[in-house]
Amino acid sequence: MANYFNRVDVALPGAATFFGKQSVEERAHALKLIDYVNTRGGHVKLMPLSAPARQDWWNLHAALSEALDLEKTNNANLLSLHKLASENNDPDLTNFLEEFYLREQVDEIQRLARMANHLFRMGASGLGEHLFDLELQKAA
Predict the structure, then answer these.
(1) pLDDT, tens digit (0-9, with 9 covering 90-100), for 81-127
(2) What is the three-class DSSP state of 125?
(3) Exposure check for the chain: N or C terminus, fewer CB within 10 A?
């Protein structure tokens, strides 16, 4: 998403910076989970990553909505893992997930939903999108 918004024909630098930071944060979450598995004596089996099915968005609102959906999916997967850990009497994993992931997921879902709603009210394209991008630049 960051690359898309950084394109010269899209030119939303605030969105590019925002999604770039999101990407770095998600990578850090993945590395933290890998470190946790290794600390517990597990073996991480990495799977190949494929390019996202969608690489162009009509507007920033569509990208924020897709990012929100992805966060909701991640949250559901983390909750499933938490449930599995609880069912298998693994308090260390449940505590790890609660401390480093679950609350943050809820906060991120709320933040993205508010951003998407705010942008929608401003106007999902045109001047509203430009003004919202300026807000993202200031927040960076």
Answers:
(1) 999 999 999 999 999 999 999 999 999 999 999 999 999 998 877 89
(2) coil
(3) C
Of the candidates 102, 31, 27, 116, the one whose C-alpha atom is nearest the C-alpha of residue 67 is: 116
Tens of pLDDT, residue by residue over 43-75, are: 999 999 888 888 888 899 999 999 999 999 999
Q: Give the amino acid at 75.
A: N
Q: Annotated binding site for Fe cation, which residues?
A: 26, 29, 71, 105
Selected from 3.40.50.720, 3.30.70.260, 1.20.1260.10, 1.10.10.10, the CATH number assigned to the domain covering 2-40+59-139 reads 1.20.1260.10
Annotated binding site: 26, 29, 71, 105
Question: How high does pLDDT run on average in the chain?
Answer: 95
Tell which residue, 58, 64, 57, has the closest CA to residue 117.
64
Please give the pLDDT value at position 90: 98
